Amino acid sequence: MSDEATLVATIKAEMKAAMRAKDKARLLTIRLILSEVKRVEVDERIDIDDARATAIMDKMLKQRRDSASQFRDANRPELADKEDAEIAVIQSFLPEQLSADEINALISDALASIDATGMAAMGPLMGKLKPALQGRADMAVVSQLVKSKLNS
Asked: How distant is the alpha carbon of residue 82 from its chain centre?
């Protein structure tokens, strides 16, 4: 990683800032992000680029959203709040989230560029959308929007 303006370098700089500010909650979440990045680097024997770091954090967001939902269902709001706090920290490193209108416009553009129709278009469409939306939208929401568009 020779380019120090990478997302991982930014996260490391934020870790130092959180240490100086004695922001334990933020520091803990940043350390979780960095440990997951390191795990992927070691397991796959690769250097993490920004796209891969975004994908890793996107997966972490999904896990935390699922956990928060389960904690709320189990009437454990204090644990759900902890997950929500981690979600906020992780999202601070990701690109700006897209609005529903922007997502629908991207879906329409992608749909126009593939030749499958109906639910058979779901796989190719999601394959085309995922790189453009990674880290910028909740893919579960995108999937729902795609399904409703294909069924209409």
From this structure: 18
